[in-house]
Each structure stands twice: as C-alpha cells, then as structure tokens.
Amino acid sequence: MPPTTRAEATSSTPSNGVSILFVCLGNICRSPMAEAHFRHLTSFSTTFPHPLISKIDSCGTGAYHLSAPPDPRTLSVLAAHNIHSYTHLARKIRVPQDFKEFDYVLAMDEENVADLEAMVERAVKKGGLRREEVEGKVRLYGSFGGKGREEVGDPYYGGGEGFEVAWEQMGRFARGLVWDIEGRGKGERGEEQEGGG
Fold first, then answer.
1. Tally of structural domains, the chain
2. In whole numbers, what is the pLDDT of the chain averaged over residues?
3. For the Phosphotyrosine protein phosphatase I domain, which residue ranges apply (predicted)?
C-alpha cells in the first residue's frame, strides 16, 4: 500500500517537483483533511509519488492546537473513504520559511487568505521575504473547484455533516489542482479555474 503519512511520503518524493501547503485556521479539521485527501488521490490515481509533486503538507494560521492530532471527525471521514494510516500533528505556518519553501499555499477560506496575505506583507516589510518569492503562491483552494472562489466552511463547531461536505469539496478541488500542476509541468501557466464544470 502506498505511504500516506507525512514522514513516509516526504522521504520518497523527488526534490524537483512542486510543493503544496494546505492552510486553515487551527490545522486539525480542514487542512489536514485536504492534505490526506490529496496524498491519497495522487498516490492511487497515478504511480506514487506523482512525478510532478515533491512535497505535501498542512498547517494553520493560528497556534490554537499546536501538536494536536486531527479532529476525530476528520479522521472518521478519512477512514470512511479508506484513508486509515494518515498521521499528523498540528502546526502553525512558519514565516517566512513556508512561503519560500512551498509553490502552492492553499487557503480553505477567504479569512485564511487575508491572514496569509497579511503575514506576507509583514515579512516583506521586515525584509525576511521578497514579494517575487511569493507571487501567485497564496490562493484559495476552492478556486480549483470549477465554481469560482468557493470556500471550505469550518466544520469545527458543527456536526459530522460539515466534515462530509468538506470531503466532497476536497475531491473537486484536488482534481483541479492536479490539472493545474500538470499544466505547469508542460510549461503552461496554471490559472485558477472559473465558471462551471
């Protein structure tokens, strides 16, 4: 069975592919689900690892749940979709390192986008980051879903149904992201998908 833990996947991925960082608020619900889903998709839909992907990770904009495992409802949804071996400990985004290291910094909602952009601005002002290092990296994950700028709502305070809705969204967004990455690999400029489809 292909590896789905962060340590296993990182040790066996090429160093010249694109890197993807999924970001939500606390890094225990949406972004770890996105990370696990995307690892699963790219390992089972193609030979593992995907030849154009070097690293997949997730983090939060806040430090509310540092070193905590994913929310049990996230793990329950993953297990229901045959993802059983994903392990993860919540972390906060590292500024400026993560903005330099990752090619895609994908936020779950517009508030996450605004928080990330504010972090970029502060890092640029302090001289720890050059604007061109971040150009086009911070994006709304839902922009890859074919329905415009779609947000993944935070299911933390609700019931299990919010986690299932998030899973369905991850499926659409992940396919669009793979399409974008493969377009990059062919030398095409990846663009956010808009409109129906």
1. 1
2. 88
3. 18-180
pLDDT digits (tens, 9 = 90+) for 164-194: 999 999 999 999 999 999 998 666 544 444 4
Does any domain span residue 92?
A: yes
Residues 6+ apart with CB under 8 A from 91: 27, 59, 60, 66, 67
> CATH no. for residue 145?
3.40.50.2300
59 is catalytic: no
In a domain, 193, yes or no: no
Catalytic residue among 71, 98, 109, 154: 154
Strands (E), the chain: 18-24, 53-60, 104-107, 138-140
Residues in the chain: 197
Out of 6, 30, 39, 139, the active site residue is 30
Task: State the residue range of the domain holding 24.
Answer: 6-185
Residue 171 maps to a domain:
yes
- Inside any domain, residue 195: no
Does 154 qualify as catalytic in the annotation? yes
Q: Does 30 qualify as catalytic in the annotation?
A: yes
